[in-house]
Amino acid sequence: MEKFKSFLKKKDIEISLKRYGIEALGAMAQGLFCSLLIGTIINTIGTQFGITFLTTPVATVGGVEYTVGGIASAMSGPAMAVAIGYALKCPPLVLFSMISVGFAANALGGAGGPLAVLFVAILSAEIGKMVSKETKVDILVTPLVTIGTGIFFSWLIAPALGKAAMWLGNLIMWATELQPFLMGILVSVLVGMALTLPISSAAICAALGLTGLAGGAAVAGCSAQMIGFAIISFKENKWGGLVSQGIGTSMLQMGNIVKNPRVWIAPTLASAVTGPLATCLFKLKMNGAPVSSGMGTCGFVGQIGVYTGWVKDVSEGTKTAITAFDWIGLVLISFVLPALLSLLFHAIVKKLGWVKEGDLKLKA
User: Fold this and answer.
1) Dihedral (CA of 198, 201, 206, 207) sign
2) How far is 325 from 352, CA to CA, in rounded Å?
3) Residue 310: inside a domain, yes or no?
4) Are 37 and 154 part of one and the same domain?
């Protein structure tokens, strides 16, 4: 047993929640940003501004025509797998082999492909690392083992994982349509907290295919955390903190949350209010890329995702037009209400003596 542990250490294989549930999951979300999300944005820019180069197919593969954005989106499987491999510190031959693994897992996982890619990529990457540089014909053995195991696991578990992810995602979305008030609170609070925790809310939303009203509630929750922390900590962190948290990530506050969990009360309560407002009053829906649901105001990706969803709905005829009420709802839910509500709740917790000056100060 000790010999095996020593071998795993030598191969930098760390079987832990941190490595797989935080680092790999977070990297997967980045892979999605650099493929599916960027592709969606490119397509939207091309459509909205009438840029012919971006709306005209530039390649035809297997009878399917692809625009520039379409090509980027089609590479989501390989992009996720390579990102996961990078997070797992794969040697070059294993990392490059992850391209084929990601394509297979995403394709066989169907609509729930991201979750399938996460599991299959981790398994094939770690097995690939085990055999890497163990033979004199490493250039043949390592890619064969990595790709072979990746495609085998894709065939074996990707369809089931994909179906499970979509079943759970559809259940959440169905429940949100049925009970928009209660589910608005639940989804907003939980996804918002996931964004602040050192896990990837974006990857979770992508894996579950979270769109529609549930996606809108997720945007509300994530925005409440980011804008909330940015505003209530402005006195301690000034403009740098406002930008780094407001359009960066509220995860920067994790150190302070560990020291005093009560600093988390104000943004979380704000998300519990904005979530049902998003689902019940403004009917805010995320019909863009599911990964955008878990992004909040990070680079304004959540808001861009909502907008791309509007554009898609209008083009498909399910929405007549983008109205002033749509814009008012998006701005209020994403920016105005999180700021005002968080300030109100923060003033109360400070008055109760639960939070004091300096508790939200970010480390330099």
Assistant:
1) positive
2) 37
3) yes
4) yes
The answer as to whether 346 is a domain residue is: yes
Beta-carbon-side half-sphere exposure of residue 145 (alpha carbons within 13 Å): 20
pLDDT tens, residue by residue, 328-342: 999 999 999 999 999
**pLDDT at 364 (0 to 100):** 62
**Residue of 75, 83, 73 lying closest to 125 (CA atoms):** 83
Helix locations, the chain, DSSP H: 2-10, 17, 25-32, 38-49, 52-55, 68-74, 76-87, 92-109, 113-131, 138-178, 180-196, 201-208, 212-232, 234-246, 254-259, 265-276, 301-316, 324-331, 337-351
Cα–Cα dist 203/205, whole Å: 5
Per-range mean pLDDT, top range of 24-33, 37-46, 115-124: 115-124
Buried b / exposed e over 178-192, threshold 16 CB at 10 Å, is eebeebbbbbbbbbb
What type of residue is 219?
V
The residue to which tokens 């590479």 are assigned: 75
Amino acid at position 13, single letter: I
Q: Domain check: are 126 and 63 in the same one?
A: yes
- What secondary structure letter does DSSP report for 362? P
DSSP 286: B
Structure confidence at residue 33 (pLDDT): 84
Please count the structural domains in the chain. Answer: 2
State the Cα angle at 95 between 121 and 25, rounded to 5°: 40
Question: In which domain, by residue range, is 157 found?
Answer: 2-167
27 and 87 Cβ atoms separated by less than 8 Å: yes
CB 249 within 8 A of CB 195: yes
Examine the domain organization and report whether 215 and 269 are in the same domain. yes
pLDDT tens column, 266-319: 999 999 999 999 999 999 999 988 989 999 998 898 999 999 999 989 989 989
Q: What is the CA radius of gyration of the chain?
A: 22
Same domain for 207 and 154?
no
Query: Is position 48 within any domain?
Result: yes
Quick check: is 172 in a domain? no
Q: Taking 90 as the threshold, does the pLDDT of residue 125 lie above it?
A: yes
Q: Which residues contact 174 (CB under 8 A, 6 or more apart)?
A: none
